């Protein structure tokens, strides 16, 4: 299918993109009723497959009764401004209309069996695996998403919302989802609902699961899985960066199959020249073991100002290189990976796009190494969850936590909806990893 990124790029430049609406609910009737409870394509299913026992249409319960009207930020108390009811699916079922299997019961059939497909280290992939994977990525930039993007500020003139909608590709929707969670749409300020707070690990966990499902559906292959890039292991750091993988740098120009396939970027406005230390400090296994030793998930003030010494696993794992994170010293974990790759000296460090998009937090998923990096981050989260045998109760419930990161906030901007705390459970609940995504075991 042909698809042009141009329209989306143009509307994104205007910075008023507002929401991600499933195709089934991107119509005036659904928007007017504020009820996104579609009927799955199954005989006599009823809304949310209720007649088949798959799910039911339920009011969404948001932490506050009203959204932040002054800010006009539809992400606050997501998705209440658009929808006050959505499908809630039973354990085995999933998708916007409960017509799919849940992440855990994704058996390619009737959702009867739990299916665990362990992720691998990218170091285990063969050249043929990489060739297929790069083809999947390129196809995802050309294949239409199952979601529409609203490109105007919210209004109850629903026709205006519908008229403004645009349909990006599967891959560009993935970039956009990250971008919009990180920035306040329509407003010239930042309120980040995916980073610098307790939702960092949980938000990205859902992103990876959701995008993996979008690609499974695109491919018609429920076995498709992402793999993790273990940058803790010095021998694996260069593995993804060859011409037939995610690209290589030759004479400061990035080349390879993705570039030849006209890989395109969206949502990327901040093209300033980043600078970084000449000799990047990669996180070490010792850093990682220290992170694993922190038992508290997060502590006050639940943001980037939490000092590493204050026993916050989340803050330490997320890592900050700037002055706010000075207390992290040489130890911060995950954010530096973006900087090493995105801001890097191209001669010394291959990076997919010479302009450094991986170093731009909001738009970084434009560089597909983001996927393998965040699959790695998720492996680490899982190892921590397993070590302390914790679940939802470990997610802090303080009222000081910023919008979007609160325990019962629905993760922005996803439909079907999941609360932040629901992602802080063993990955067995999502059919991911199995038992062998143990990062420390490879040390
Ligand atoms: C949802 O919104 C619609 C339209 O404004 C309203 O009629 C309905 O009562 C609301 N339902 C709930 C559960 O709040
Ligand atoms: C959208 O809302 C914001 C915040 O109120 C405002 O600054 C901006 O101009 C609006 N954009 C449009 C296109 O109306
Ligand atoms: C990439 O774009 C160039 C220039 O428009 C075109 O000649 C080429 O066929 C494209 N390659 C692919 C794989 O689409
Ligand atoms: C970034 O640096 C390169 C190389 O020094 C230079 O050619 C380019 O103009 C700079 N871009 C900006 C936006 O400053
Ligand atoms: C980049 O790295 C190469 C190889 O390590 C080095 O020779 C070069 O001086 C570096 N360039 C800059 C601008 O740091």
TrEMBL record:
An example of a GO molecular function for this protein is:
oxidoreductase activity
Leader sequence range is: 1-19
Q: Which UniProt keywords apply?
A: Copper, Metal-binding, Signal
Which intervals hold domain Tyrosinase copper-binding? Answer: 367-378
Organism superkingdom? Eukaryota
Name assigned to this protein:
Tyrosinase
Organism lineage reads as: Eukaryota, Metazoa, Porifera, Demospongiae, Heteroscleromorpha
């Amino acid at each position: 299918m042909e698809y042009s990124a141009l329209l989306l790029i143009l509307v994104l430049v205007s910075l008023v993109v507002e929401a991600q609406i499933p195709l089934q609910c991107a119509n005036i009737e659904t928007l007017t009723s504020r009820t996104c409870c579609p009927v799955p394509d199954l005989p006599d299913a009823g809304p949310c497959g209720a007649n088949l026992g798959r799910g039911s249409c339920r009011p969404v319960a948001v932490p506050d009764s009203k959204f932040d009207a002054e800010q006009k930020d539809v992400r606050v108390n997501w998705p209440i401004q658009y929808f006050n009811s959505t499908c809630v699916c039973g354990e085995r079922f999933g998708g916007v209309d409960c017509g799919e299997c849940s992440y855990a019961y994704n058996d390619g059939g009737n959702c009867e069996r739990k299916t665990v497909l362990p992720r691998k280290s990218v170091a285990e992939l063969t050249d043929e695996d990489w060739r297929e994977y790069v083809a999947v990525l390129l196809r995802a930039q050309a294949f239409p998403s199952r979601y529409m993007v609203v490109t105007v500020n919210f209004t109850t003139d629903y026709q205006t919302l519908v008229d403004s909608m645009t349909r990006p590709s599967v891959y560009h929707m993935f970039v956009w989802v990250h971008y919009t969670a990180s920035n306040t749409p329509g407003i010239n300020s930042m309120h980040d609902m995916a980073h610098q707070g307790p939702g960092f690990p949980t938000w990205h966990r859902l992103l990876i699961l959701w995008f993996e499902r979008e690609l499974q559906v695109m491919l018609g292959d429920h076995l498709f899985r992402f793999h993790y890039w273990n940058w803790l292991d010095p021998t694996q750091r260069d593995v993804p960066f060859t011409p037939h993988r995610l690209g290589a740098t030759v004479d400061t120009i990035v080349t390879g199959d993705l570039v030849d396939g006209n890989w395109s970027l969206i949502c990327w406005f901040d093209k300033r020249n980043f600078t970084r230390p000449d000799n990047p400090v990669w996180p070490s296994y010792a850093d990682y073991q220290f992170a694993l030793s922190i038992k508290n998930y997060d502590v006050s003030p639940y943001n980037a100002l939490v000092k590493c010494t204050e026993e916050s696993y989340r803050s330490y794992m997320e890592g900050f290189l700037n002055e706010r994170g000075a207390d992290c010293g040489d130890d911060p974990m995950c954010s530096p990976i973006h900087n090493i790759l995105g801001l890097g000296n191209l001669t010394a460090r291959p990076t997919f796009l010479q302009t450094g998009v991986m170093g731009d937090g909001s738009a970084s998923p434009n560089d597909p190494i983001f996927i393998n990096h965040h699959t790695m981050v998720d492996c680490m989260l899982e190892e921590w969850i397993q070590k302390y045998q914790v679940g939802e109760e470990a997610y802090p419930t303080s009222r000081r936590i910023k919008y979007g990161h609160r325990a019962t906030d629905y993760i922005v901007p996803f439909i079907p909806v999941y609360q932040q705390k629901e992602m802080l459970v063993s990955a067995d609940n999502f059919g991911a990893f199995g038992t062998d995504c143990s990062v420390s075991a490879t040390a």
